[in-house]
């Protein structure tokens, strides 16, 4: 099983960062790689079990299922249902932790998935850099860093 883990510090209070990222349908509002998103069947975006269908700016389409959402823990967990990437059993979590020093946010995004051994390094690097770190960089820009 492959594992991706990326973390960063956002120069904004955790409550403000969480307000931006907790919306399971809100990726286009903060991640530059996402062109559009919708929740299938008109379900609420914070209902565990809802499915988001979204398009990347390059035209690729994905579907992901919300597995858990905790405002108390500032944690979102989801799985990929359909993706053009050659991987299976993908489960990811995005977690925020308040940093009391200067009222900042520690943010971490991790994923576990299965893939062919010869693709693991490329997929780990791509997800970590093009998805997770790109999202963190965009959040830092959005909050004035």
Helix and strand arrangement:
Elements: E1 2-10, H1 14-21, E2 34-39, E3 51-56, E4 61-70, E5 75-82, E6 88-99, E7 104-114, H2 120-142
Antiparallel strand pairs: 1-7, 2-3, 3-4, 4-5, 5-6, 6-7
Structure description:
The chain is of the alpha+beta class and 145 residues long. It has a single domain, classed as Alpha-D-Glucose-1,6-Bisphosphate, Chain A, domain 4, CATH 3.30.530.20. The protein is 21% helix and 43% strand. The protein contains 2 helices and 7 strands, in the order E-H-E-E-E-E-E-E-H. It has helices spanning 14-21, 120-142; strands at 2-10, 34-39, 51-56, 61-70, 75-82, 88-99, 104-114. Strands 1-7-6-5-4-3-2 form a 7-stranded antiparallel β-sheet. A hairpin with a 4-residue loop joins strand 6 and strand 7 (104-114). The longest helix is centred in the last third of the chain and has 23 residues, at 120-142. The radius of gyration is 15 Å and the shape is globular. It starts with a strand and ends with a helix. The model has no long low-confidence stretch (mean pLDDT 96).
């Amino acid at each position: 099983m492959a594992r991706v883990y990326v973390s960063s510090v956002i120069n904004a209070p955790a409550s403000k960062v969480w307000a931006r990222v907790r919306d399971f349908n809100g990726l286009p509002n903060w991640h530059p790689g996402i062109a559009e998103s919708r929740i299938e069947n008109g379900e609420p975006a914070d209902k565990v079990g809802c499915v988001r269908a979204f398009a990347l700016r390059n035209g690729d389409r994905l579907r992901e299922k919300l597995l858990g959402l905790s405002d108390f823990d500032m944690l979102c967990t989801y799985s990929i249902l359909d993706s053009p990437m050659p991987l299976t059993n993908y489960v990811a979590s995005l977690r925020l932790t308040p940093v009391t020093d200067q009222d900042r946010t520690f943010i971490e995004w991790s994923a576990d998935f299965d893939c062919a051994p010869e693709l693991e390094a490329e997929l780990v690097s791509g997800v970590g850099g093009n998805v997770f770190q790109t999202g963190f960089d965009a959040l830092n820009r959005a909050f004035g860093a």
